Amino acid sequence: MNPFRVAIAVARKDLRSEWRTREMVPALAQFIVLALLIGNFAFQIDFRNAPSIAPGILWLVLVFAGLVAFGRTFAAEREQSSLEAMLMTPASPVAIFAGKALAASALLILCEAVLLPALSLFFGTPFSADVVIAVLLATVGMAALGCLFAAIVARVRARELLLPLLTLPLWIPFIVAGGQAVQSAMGLPGRYDEAVGLLIDFDILFVVLTSLAARFVLDE
Amino acid sequence: MSMVVANGLTHRFGSELALDGVDLVLDTGEHIAVLGDNGAGKTTLLRILATALRPTLGRLEIAGLDAFRERRRLRHYIGYLAHAPGLYPALSARENIEFFCDLQDVSRTRIADVLETVGLVSVAHRRASQLSRGEQQRLAIARAILHDPRLLILDEPDASLDADAADLLGGVMRGRTAVMATHDHALANRLCPRTLVLRHGRSLGTPAHLRVVR
After folding, report:
1. Which is nearest to B140 in space by CA: B127, B154, B126?
2. Which residues contact A46 (CB under 8 A, 6 or more apart)?
3. How close is the nearest chain A Cα to the Cα of B96, in Å?
4. Using one digit for the tens of pLDDT, what is the confidence trace for A197-218?
5. pLDDT tier at B208 (50, 70, 90 boundaries)?
6. What is the ipTM of this complex?
7. A88, A100, A215: which to substitute to probe chain B, counting the most B Cβ within 10 Å?
8. Half-sphere exposure of A209 (CA within 13 A, CB side)
C-alpha cells in the first residue's frame, strides 16, 4: 500500500470537510485579526519599535492559532468515532498521521496568509519573502509536534488544557529561531541565515521523531 | 479450519474487569451471536476480536495468525462495524466510501457494488449528515464489507435498521465468518446457529470450560 496515497487521501478528506463546514479557518482568521488589533492598541507602536514588537506578536498569535488548528485534527475524529475506522484499515498509522499533519498545516498556512499581510498593515513592518520563509519553516515542525500531541491528548477529557502544556515547551525552539529570523528580516540586527538553518535542523529532527512516535501513539 | 481461536481473553479498564477469561473457537464460515445485557462485555470482546483493542491477558489467533503480532496483515481479513457509525458528516455517502477505498487499497469500482448491497445507491450523493440514522448504519456496513473481508465483526448492526435488517445482514454475512453482538434474540436465532452469552464479562455455559453455548 502506497503511504503517499494514504497521506494525500487523509489530507484531502480533512480539507474537503473543512471547505464544506468552514468550521475553523474563518474563526481563526477572525481571531488573528482581533489579536493583531489588540496588540496594536496595547503597545505604543511607532516606526522605531515596530520591528522589535511585531515579531513577538506574530509568534504569540501563531502559537495560539496553531494550538486550535492542531487540537482539532484528532479531536474531530474522536468526536465522530471515525478514528478507529481509519485505524482499522491496513493503512500505515504514520501515513495517516502525515495526512492529518499535512491538512492541519495547510489550514494554518491559510491563516498565515491572513496574518502576515495584516501584521504588515497594523504594524507597518516589511512583508518580505524572508519573513514568509521563516514562518513557513516553523510551521512544518510545529505541525508535526502539534499533531502528535493532539493525537495523544485526543483520548483524554482535559485535552484543551493538556495540549498547550505538552506542546508549548517543545515549540520554544521554533519560536526562538523563528523569532530571530523574523526580527532580522524586519531589519533588526541578527543572522537570518543562521536562524533559518536552525529552523531547518529542528524541522528535520522533529519530523523524524514524530513520525517514529506516531506509529505507537496511533496504533495503541 | 478455525478462523478464530481465542483463549482466556481478559480485559481490564483500570480496576474494572470488562472481560474475564472468554474462550471462543469459530470455524471458517460460521456465524455466532454475542448476547448479553448492557455492560456485559460484548463491545470489549468484539473490539478485541477486531484487533482494535489488545487484551490484558489471553491469546487470539485469526486465520492461524497471532492477532496482535500480525495485526496490520490481518486488517485485510477483518471487517469491523463499530457501535458508532464513525462517518464523516461533511462528506457524501460515496465520498465516505471512496476515502476508505484509498485506505483499504481497494479499487473504486467496488463502490457501486457495496452501495447496491446496502441499498444506498439513490442517496449516494447525499452528505452523511443528511442521511437518516438507519441509512448511516447501512453506510457503515458498506464500509465494513468494502474490502470483502473473510471475518466480519458487527457490533449491534441492527441498531436503527428497519424491518428488512435481517435480510440485509444475512446477505452481508453470507460466505463469511461472522461475529455479531445484538440485543435482538430473534435476529440472533435467525442469522446465527451459535450463541455466546456474556454476563459481567464472563461467558455463561456449563460445564465451566465449555464457554460457548450451542
Report:
1. B154
2. none
3. 9
4. 999 999 999 999 999 998 888 8
5. very low
6. 0.85
7. A88
8. 15
Nearest partner of A119 among A36, A25, A28, A60, judged by Cα: A36
CA distance A20 to chain B (A): 6
Look-up of cell digits 448492557: B38
Q: Tell me the chain A residues in contact with residue B85 when contact means C-beta distances shorter than 8 Å.
A: 81
- Cα–Cα–Cα angle for B70, B48, B153, rounded to 5 degrees: 95
CB B143 within 8 A of CB B97: yes
Going by the DSSP 8-state scheme, the letter that residue A69 receives in this structure is: H
The cell numbers describing B34, all together, are: 454475542
Q: What is the 3-state secondary structure (H, E, C) of chain B?
A: CEEEEEEEEEEEECCEEEEEEEEEEEECCCEEEEEECCCCCHHHHHHHHCCCCCCCEEEEEECCEECCCCHHHHCCCEEEECCCCCCCCCCEHHHHHHHHHHHHCCCCCHHHHHHHHCCCHHHCCCEHHHCCHHHHHHHHHHHHHCCCCCEEEEECCCCCCCCCHHHHHHHHHCCCEEEEECCCHHHHHHHCCEEEEEECCEECCCCCCCCCEC
Cα dist. B57→A61, A87, B19, B48, B200 in Å?
Answer: 48, 22, 10, 11, 17
Check the CA dihedral B177-B181-B187-B193 and report its sign. Answer: positive
The domain in which residue A135 lies consists of 3-218
- Residue window 15-74, chain B: list those with CB within 8 Å of chain A: 50-52, 54, 71-73
Question: Is the CB of residue B108 less than 8 Å away from at least one CB of chain A?
Answer: no
Nearest chain B alpha carbon to A83: B86
pTM of the model: 0.87
Q: What are B15-29's pLDDT values in tens digits?
A: 889 998 899 999 999
Domain count, chain A: 1
B145 — phi, psi (to 5°)?
-100, 5
Residues in chain B with CB shorter than 8 Å from the CB of A88 are 50-52, 75, 78, 80
Q: Give the residue on A whose Cα is nearest the Cα of B54.
A: A220
Closest CA to A28 of A142, A117, A114: A114
